Amino acid sequence: MAFTASAFRRILSGSSSQSLNIRSQFASIRLNSTLVTLTTPKLFISGLSRNTTDENLFKAFAPFGRLHEAKVIIDRGSGRSKGFGFVTYKTVEEAEKAREGMNAKFLDGWVIFVDPARPREAQPRPPPRQDFQSNPQSMETGFTTNKTVGWCG
């Protein structure tokens, strides 16, 4: 299927029958995610534009119920959006309505997907660094000594 610029504009604006076809294809991609019942009012939003802010996310999800929080996750190093976020409602029913209403929809020009949020998994801690010089003093005190003796000239 070849796209021209005008066809692409029609799809994004929703003024074409092709637009409905493509939107239904996006919806079928995540059909299995709608089969999972919500147990928490927190939703995971993926596919966000790098330009989406907390305010834009809040405005997009506000019509579906009383929002507690809308947060876009930001990369610490670059300060840019990581492309996903979380939305928390007051009740599970409101979250379910939002998931049905916003899944596979356009937000800031990108198709977003709405899934139930899962609890964060505990990250295993790396083992402590071992001093490979097998210096018994370094194991007890945490300091290492330089055993090199010589002259610098």
From TrEMBL:
Comp. bias (Polar residues): 131-153
SMART domains associated with the record: RRM
MF GO annotations: RNA binding
Residue ranges, annotated region (Disordered): 118-153
Keywords: RNA-binding
Domain RRM: 41-119
Pfam families associated with the record: RRM_1 (PF00076)
Keyword RNA-binding annotated: yes
Gene3D superfamilies according to UniProt: 3.30.70.330
UniProt entry tagged with the keyword RNA-binding: yes
Name this protein carries in UniProt: RRM domain-containing protein
Species for this entry: Buddleja alternifolia
